[in-house]
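Lecture notes, unit on binding sites. The following record was shown on slide 14. It pairs a sequence with S-adenosylmethionine.
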Amino acid sequence: MQAQRIKDLFSAIARYYDFLNALLSLKRDKMWRQETVKASDVKPTHKVLDVCTGTGELALAYSNKIGAEGFVIGSDFCFEMLVIGNQKLERHTSRRNTNFLTADTLILPFLDNTFDVVSVGFGIRNVSDLEMGIREMTRVAAPGGRVVILEFTQPVNPLFRSLYYFYFTKVLPFIGNLISRNKDDAYGYLPRSVMKFPNCDALKKVMEQCGLTDVHFQRKTLGIVAIHVGKKTK
Ligand SMILES: C[S@@+](CC[C@H](N)C(=O)[O-])C[C@H]1O[C@@H](n2cnc3c(N)ncnc32)[C@H](O)[C@@H]1O
């Protein structure tokens, strides 16, 4: 999908995004983000960039682990999603180490080799050029730093997959579009984009092509999502 349509889609559902994530994932989404932080091997002194941060849920999960010497930046090109993230920051004055800014993941406004962890949660699937997005994340990661991707994937077990696909392609879009009062089928876009997205092995290969090493992944919740981690060596 084109970048402007993606922006419009997320600005239309921004107010409902967190509530529907929790509802439609049966509150698994928070746990997936916690597991992503754990897989990143993040330290209190680290500098973290969370791209496609949306309402900032993954950035905020990192900020709990980062001390005064480190910081977290969440970036996204959809202003309305960032507004919700900023409201969360205002409610938590302890989150002084975290900031949000407007930026396109395909042209990040940071110098090469800056961040210890560059993460993305449920966002890289929406970036119009997957490889260019991962290359840009890799560019701003410091040598020795990690690029971490949390994304939906296709469950491996055929029986579970058919049950899950019924929920994912029929029930979820119906509830999502109804609650968010979305007439453009924003929640139908979710399963369509996941079906087109590379499977775990293919995504690993793309990360390697982008210069990352030691790329490994773990599936979570019967393979509904996967966390990929790669290292930038130089
Ligand atoms: C499904 S949301 C994910 C939000 C959040 N990371 C989470 O864990 O829930 C996808 C986000 O990616 C953003 N996005 C898509 N393409 C982008 C791009 N090229 N640059 C910046 N943000 C982008 C959208 O605006 C949206 O906020």
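Take-home: Residues 43 and 66 are 7 Å apart (CA to CA).
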